[in-house]
Design goal:
About 45% of the residues are buried. This protein has about 450 residues and is of the alpha+beta class. It binds ligand BES and zinc ion. Zinc ion (ZN) binds next to loops.
């Protein structure tokens, strides 16, 4: 085992260089004009897997291709695991807030800044390198692995479920491993046992058939920016509750023991406030900070557009106003039901002076897996050995839509062993990945296959 860890240490600066190379691809799945860059990025990764000694191919999904790579099979009966990640990244805008350009990686101390560094390129490369170290040192890799790295996670993985169904035979195994979540600090690595689900919407309110002079017509015709603002303002009350009838109907109340478990993760509200640059926090009354951000449902406006956005003033009544909205969901909320409910409610709030269109977008179910099982313990052991600190188990507020499909289509659960730190700026300007997290993550990935092999091909993670 030492030889594998030594190999990683010897190659650590080469791996950082390579991560930089990978980060130079602007693989932004949300922007259709980036389709060529998506493919270039995917083929870079495929070649990198081949260089590591895996058999790798690009596979079509109807959207951005999937990179599928398998370790050489020994022919011996050993547990087979899927390692999932995503090479797509969130849009980097607003560019002006980046200290250096998002696709020109910059190292400052132990932090590597670039869009996608933490979410998720750095995290799955750590797994690739761990496996390379096994293969190049001729050390027996105790599990058979298939890497599935997709290009549409940040837009809801809409083509991946079909891909899983079509390729069930080669993907099925003992379970899935994902490093695409977070940990409170390098001194507190974490196994994530819950993720929130998601339901996305785009709303557009139409007013007059063109932008109008607000002096000539103002006072006689409704303003879609007002109408949309008024609609949106009614969606949440002062206590932070979502005011859509039926929104909480299926929410499984937190039990006393769940709340106790959640309370083990300590967050200092003052530090949290200062970190985010807000005077006061805002969240649903009656729940703690950690509960609010991981175990309670929300509705957020992600984008709001209307009228003139250029320099100076322009006196118009805009022809339309639009908003991008997402709800985060918890067990047992159903994204399809929430989609219908929210869309119908938005429509009924629109006055006759305007016309509203609601488009229901991508969706993902909430995920929860009990951390009381041998595979979770194997994950905890790997984290402990690599980070030399006692790991915690936690629920998180983000979503990885495909994890429920792994359960439904492949019949397996997922071990979420995240390497992101709270100040990594995922989805924000100046995203970064910490190199200590990168290196400890590689070590964790080395130990993990040993730990998982030691429990054998037992029951599924359930
Ligand atoms: N890595 C995140 C998911 C995540 C982040 C889970 C932090 C737990 C903690 C992932 O890349 C992500 O951002 N997912 C999207 C999914 C959405 C676009 C369907 C999300 O959560 O917004
Ligand atoms: Zn993300």
């Amino acid at each position: 085992m030492q030889v594998v860890l030594d190999y990683l240490r010897q190659h650590s600066s080469a791996y950082v260089e390579e991560l930089c190379e990978y980060l130079r691809f602007p693989s932004i799945s949300a922007q259709p004009d980036k389709s060529p860059e998506m493919r270039q990025c995917a083929s870079w990764l495929q070649k990198r897997f081949e260089k590591a000694g895996l058999q790798a191919k690009l596979m079509e999904t109807g959207g951005c291709p999937v990179v599928l790579a398998k370790t050489p099979r020994s022919g011996k009966a050993r547990p087979h695991y899927l390692v999932y990640g995503h090479y797509d990244v969130q849009p980097p805008e607003p560019f002006e807030l980046w200290k250096t350009p998002p696709f020109a990686p910059r190292l400052e101390g132990r932090n590597l800044f670039a869009r996608g560094a933490s979410d998720n390129k750095g995290q799955h490369l750590a797994h690739l390198y761990a496996v390379e170290a096994y293969l190049k040192t001729g050390t027996d890799l105790p599990c058979d692995l298939t890497f599935l790295i997709e290009g549409e996670e940040e837009v809801g993985s809409k083509n991946l479920a079909k891909f899983l169904k079509q390729n069930r035979a080669i993907l099925k195994g003992e379970g899935v491993v994902i490093s695409d979540t977070g940990m409170p600090s390098l001194k507190q690595p974490a196994l994530t046992c819950g993720l929130r689900g998601i339901a996305a919407f785009e709303v557009k309110v139409h007013g007059p058939n063109r932008d109008l002079h607000s002096g000539i017509f103002g006072g006689t015709v409704d303003n879609p920016a007002f109408v949309l603002s008024q609609i949106l303002a009614t969606l949440r009350d002062k206590k932070g509750r979502i005011a859509i009838p039926g929104f909480y109907d299926d929410v499984q109340p937190l039990t006393a023991s769940e709340r106790k478990e959640i309370a083990k993760l300590k967050l200092d509200p003052v530090k949290y406030r200062n970190f985010l640059g807000v005077q006061e926090l805002f969240g649903e009354k009656g729940y703690t900070l950690v509960e609010q951000r991981s175990a309670r449902p929300t509705l957020e406006i992600n984008g709001l557009t209307s009228g003139y956005q250029g320099a100076g003033s322009k006196t118009i009544i805009p022809a339309w106003a639009s908003a991008k909205i997402t709800c985060r969901l918890v067990p047992n909320q159903d994204p399809a039901r929430i989609g219908k409910l929210v869309a119908a409610y938005l429509k009924c709030l629109c006055p006759a002076t305007c016309r509203i269109e609601v488009e229901v977008g991508h969706a993902g179910e909430p995920y929860y897996v009990s951390p009381e099982n041998p595979k979770a313990r194997a994950g905890i052991n790997a984290l402990r050995r690599a980070f030399k600190a006692e790991p915690i188990m936690m629920r998180e507020g983000g979503s990885i839509p495909i994890v429920n499909d792994f359960r439904k289509i492949l019949g397996v659960d997922t071990l979420l062993l995240g390497l992101a730190l709270p100040d990594d700026n995922a989805h924000s300007p100046n995203e970064k990945f910490n190199l200590d997290s990168f290196e400890k993550g590689m070590a964790m990935a080395v130990f993990l296959w040993q730990e998982l092999a030691a429990i054998g091909s037992s029951s599924k993670i359930k």
